[in-house]
């Protein structure tokens, strides 16, 4: 076996014949299949001077047990409570295969500005290896409240009583 991204180390066999010279060659064939079935099959062929042929095979299977790696995952932070946070969509790289990226938004406990949000990213390669990373955003409220509908200032006479506020 060999780890995906590495190169297998094949044996260096020799061939002998009791009646003369032998030519030894090989051909590498890719073995496709699911993750456990991928690899390389090396077929060794020995031919003597009289045309007698012997073949042997050596098979290496790829092992992919290393998860993908996220690239470009944004930092956690804060956002104004009247907007939605801006998440940076990451990419994921894997030595062996393509990856699929997904996410789930999870509410988090908040403070006076309300609950926050955590986005949990998941990247999965074709062999089922996965990695999880997250970004968390907390809402902040930096604006003072506004009072709306206060009537205009005016004057009144004390003899008329208490004025009506609107």
Explain what you see.
The chain is built from no helices and 10 strands. By secondary structure, it is mostly beta strands. The chain has a 4-stranded mixed beta sheet, with no helix packed on it. Strands 6-10-9-8 form a 4-stranded mixed beta sheet, with no helix packed on it. It has a two-stranded antiparallel ribbon with strand order 5-7. A hairpin with a 4-residue loop joins β9 and β10.
Spans where pLDDT lies below 50 across 5 or more residues: none
Roughly what is the average pLDDT, rounded to an integer? 87
**Category by helix and strand content:** mainly beta
Reading the helices and strands in chain order gives EEEEEEEEEE
Task: Quote the beta fraction.
Answer: over 45%
Could you tell me the radius of gyration in angstroms?
Answer: 35 Å
Number of strands: 10
Ends distance: 84 Å
Strand order of the largest sheet: 1-4-3-2
Biggest β-sheet: count, sense, barrel?
4 strands, mixed
- Percent helix range: under 10%
User: What is the overall silhouette?
Assistant: rod-shaped
Separate helix tally = 0
What descriptive keywords fit this protein?
166 residues; mainly beta; 4-stranded mixed sheet; 0% helix
A few lines on this structure:
The protein is an all-beta fold. It has strands spanning 2-3, 22-31, 39-48, 53-63, 69-71, 77-80, 91-93, 99-111, 114-125, 130-140.
Strand and helix map with partners:
Elements: E1 2-3, E2 22-31, E3 39-48, E4 53-63, E5 69-71, E6 77-80, E7 91-93, E8 99-111, E9 114-125, E10 130-140
Parallel strand pairs: 1-4, 6-10
Antiparallel strand pairs: 2-3, 3-4, 5-7, 8-9, 9-10
């Amino acid at each position: 076996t060999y780890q995906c991204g590495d190169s297998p180390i094949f044996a260096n066999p020799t061939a002998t014949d009791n009646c003369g010279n032998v030519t030894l060659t090989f051909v590498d064939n890719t073995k496709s299949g699911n993750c456990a079935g991928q690899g390389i099959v090396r077929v060794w062929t020995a031919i003597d001077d009289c045309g007698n042929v012997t073949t042997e095979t050596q098979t290496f299977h790829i092992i992919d047990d290393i998860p993908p790696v996220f690239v470009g995952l944004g930092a956690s932070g804060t956002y104004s409570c009247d907007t939605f946070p801006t998440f940076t969509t990451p990419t994921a790289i894997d030595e062996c295969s393509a990856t699929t990226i997904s996410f789930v938004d999870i509410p988090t406990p908040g403070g006076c500005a309300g609950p926050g949000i955590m986005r949990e990213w998941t990247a999965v390669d074709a062999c089922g290896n996965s990695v999880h990373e997250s970004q968390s955003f907390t809402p902040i409220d930096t604006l003072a409240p506004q009072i709306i509908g206060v009537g205009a200032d005016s004057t009144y006479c004390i003899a008329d009583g208490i004025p009506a506020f609107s």
